[in-house]
Amino acid sequence: MQFSAEHRALSDTVTKFVEKELNPHVPAWEKAEQFPAHEVFKKLGNLGLLGLKYPEEFGGAGLDFSYSMVMAEALGTCYCAGVPMGIGVHTDMCTPALARFGSDELRREFLAPSIAGDLVGCLGVSEAGGGSDVAAIKTSAKKDGGDYVINGSKMWITNGMQADWCCLLVNTSDGPVHKNKSLIVVPMDLPGITRQKIHKIGMDASDTAQLFFDNVRVPQRNLIGQEGMGFMFQMMQFQEERLWGAASSLKNLDRLIDLTIGYTRERKAFGKSILDNQVVHFRLAELRTEVEALRALTYAAVDQYVAGKDVTKLASMAKLKCGRLIREVSDSCLQYWGGMGFTWDNPISQSYRDGRLVSIGGGADEVMLSIICKLEGTLPKG
């Protein structure tokens, strides 16, 4: 991917925003287990950063997905992964289907204020009995008059405690599991909606909720696109979600290696610095090479996606590699920090905790492997 002057300017803008508006507050937000999404999103909206790839008529910048990738990578300079994840869910996970397939009325009501930073969105796909297996969801929406009546629950919902609306995947018929699902925009202040906070071992600054829907009535005009197309829309959305996740990890991985080089150069043991040991500096060189390989894969996938190609395989590869590399880099670096790496406020331990989610959320490693195998034609028959 070739970075234009516009790409570089965007990266500088986002990096400065992270340095000024996010990083100073990370310790407090981690302790509170929530960052103030409305406040942060409004600041991002004022800078025009919440709708880079969306139509100008709804407040977006009308740019291609490469700009979303640049923003994701720059957000990786944040001192925690939870805040960038909350932002990414809003910009690249709950809004793509609405922007592509929603009616003009629906986009004016929900997309435009989300781009402006006046509304916070979330994505409701996973359930307690159906995470990576999207086809297994049970939440239903039955027609009654001019409304849908929604019953069920959703699990692991990022921004769920603060969201003003949810892009909700539901079963709208009893047909085949890949053709009976629809995406519906659900305002989160409706009667019958209950939120319950989920406490996690990482990503603490990002609030996560379980959502319950008890006879929640939503106008049928809140349907995104056509009924029964929800599964397909969600699969399309996953390409951007997985590329966004890979891109957002890159600068954080570089930062972990940089910090570890600095620390091991200063830390002495048995008369020399830890970094002087060949096993250490060789390992750090190997890890840096792996990060650059992930960067090249991610950039290549983004280039092809912008060119209109199906990048399901490459996006799945990038997601798989990203999740495993975050675990590998943070674990290796933590070892070289010794006891300091095992303390709670250490930047390496922060990434060690946060990064474990990447191999689970947005499609587990095993699902990515199955997708890759299917597209390679290597799955067993029968």
TrEMBL record:
One of its GO terms (biological process) is fatty acid beta-oxidation using acyl-CoA dehydrogenase. Keywords: FAD, Flavoprotein, Oxidoreductase. Belongs to the acyl-CoA dehydrogenase family. Its cofactor is FAD. It comes from Paucibacter sediminis. It comes from the Bacteria. GO terms for cellular component: cytoplasm. One of its GO terms (molecular function) is flavin adenine dinucleotide binding. Residues 228-373 form the Acyl-CoA dehydrogenase/oxidase C-terminal domain. Residues 122-216 form the Acyl-CoA oxidase/dehydrogenase middle domain. This is Acyl-CoA dehydrogenase family protein. Residues 4-118 form the Acyl-CoA dehydrogenase/oxidase N-terminal domain. InterPro entries: Acyl-CoA_dehydrogenase, Acyl-CoA_DH_CS, Acyl-CoA_Oxase/DH_mid-dom, Acyl-CoA_Oxase/DH_mid-dom_sf, AcylCo_DH-like_C, AcylCo_DH/oxidase_C, AcylCoA_DH/ox_N, AcylCoA_DH/ox_N_sf. Pfam families: Acyl-CoA_dh_1, Acyl-CoA_dh_M, Acyl-CoA_dh_N. PANTHER family: ACYL-COA DEHYDROGENASE 6, MEDIUM-CHAIN SPECIFIC ACYL-COA DEHYDROGENASE, MITOCHONDRIAL-RELATED.
